[in-house]
Amino acid sequence: MVAGFFWVAGELLLPGLAVLCRQWRLLQGAVTLTLAVLATCWGCPSLFPESPRWLLATRQLEKGRKGLRALAEGNGVSLEDEFYSQEHLLSDGVPLPRYHTLCDVFCTRVIWKNSLILGFTAFIGSGIRHCFTRNLAPYLPRFYFSYFLLAALEAAACLFLCVTVNRFGRRPILLLCTILTGIASLLLLALTQYLLDWIILTLSVLGIAYSQAVTMLSIFFASEVLPTVVRGAGLGLIMAASFVGKAAGPIMDIQNNRGFFLHHVVFASFAILSVLSIMLLPESKGKGLPESLQDGESQRRPPLFRSSRRRDQLPLLSPRSAGHAPEHPVLTALGLQVSPAPSGLCRLCAVPPGAHRTTVSGQQLPSASLEALA
């Protein structure tokens, strides 16, 4: 979610850069030069280190040890040498590297289903936005005002997600935003000529905000349900689907909005279809990140209209021991410890519901901080 605010900040800075450059060729060169400078971080491990979680998940023990040592030293955490032993870092098997590609995702069932659904919702959220922005043109004074309005709505959508997803869950909020996006699209599609101007403007603004929330939450949701070993490839695929949906706007502008009605009908129908597919997704709130393909395949879809006590009894991740909550080496290197209560075991990680206590240097932190740093 923090990356969403940086994205909005970049959009707000772009008009100022355009004023300084004056010509579009200079603007394109300035943006390309900035991206080239950022690309140099890829070859500098100190500025852009590899993820220790991914290194351990792919059985790259030596590189994982180096990453954990650097992470612990950077956070001022002193760890014993036993922490970096093979028995502690790897639960089973010989530390042979296990690399996975995007083709491995196609051979799975649950992971491929989740990736397909989230890629589809990201595509719909980006593509349907042009149907709403076109309705804003007759009501806005200048063209640059609509640009700043879109950036402000993206910031509002990001703030809405930060407030709601940790409280109500990822899947319910994604379902709600998709339903509201579909309803706004259908009302504008069928009743535009019968509605008042302020109602059309309100529906368009709400549709833009909720469609942006659908796109952002789909990408964020995918980062939690995809296993660590294929998370980078899966996120790249879903973000590519989002950018393909964004390309619908420029294509319609090139065609002078010919076929806009068909474009609106198709994306409104896809939005309703995505509502049904979202119900097949698992819920990742309060659950650990899946590490291997087996962990990703063990995810279960919780019932939609039942209480939390009667949800499926199969855990998202099997705890490594029955007496305490599973600790990831990356969390220990960050100085985070999870201390369970002794009785009333939770069905997920063998601790009582709500009894997880996260301590950093003797101070307690809420469980949301642990989930964010994991």
Describe this structure in words.
This protein has 374 residues and is mainly α. It has a domain at 100-298: Growth Hormone, Chain: A (Up-down Bundle), CATH 1.20.1250. It is 61% helix and 3% strand. The protein has helices spanning 2-21, 24-39, 52-57, 61-74, 86-89, 102-106, 110-127, 129-136, 143-168, 170-191, 197-225, 231-246, 248-254, 260-278, 293-297, 329-333, 367-373, and strands spanning 337-339, 357-360, 363-365. Strands 1-2-3 form a three-stranded antiparallel sheet. The longest helix has 29 residues, at 197-225. The radius of gyration is 23 Å and the shape is globular. The two termini are 14 Å apart.
Blueprint (SSEs and pairs):
Elements: H1 2-21, H2 24-39, H3 52-57, H4 61-74, H5 86-89, H6 102-106, H7 110-127, H8 129-136, H9 143-168, H10 170-191, H11 197-225, H12 231-246, H13 248-254, H14 260-278, H15 293-297, H16 329-333, E1 337-339, E2 357-360, E3 363-365, H17 367-373
Helix pairs in contact: 1-9, 7-11, 7-12, 7-14, 8-11, 9-10, 9-11, 10-11, 10-14, 11-12
Briefly characterize the structure.
By secondary structure, the chain is mainly α. 61% of the residues lie in helices and 3% in strands.
Describe the structure using short key phrases.
374 residues; mainly alpha; Growth Hormone, Chain: A; three-stranded antiparallel beta sheet; 3 strands; 3% strand; disordered C terminus
What's the overall geometry?
globular
Largest sheet: 3 strands, antiparallel
CATH architecture of the domain at 100-298: Up-down Bundle
SSE-based structural type: mainly alpha
Strand arrangement within the widest β-sheet reads: 1-2-3
Q: Report low-confidence residues grouped into runs of 5 or more.
A: 311-326, 338-363, 365-374
Helices and strands, in order, run as HHHHHHHHHHHHHHHHEEEH
Helix content: 55-70%
Radius of gyration: 23 Å
**Average pLDDT across residues?**
76
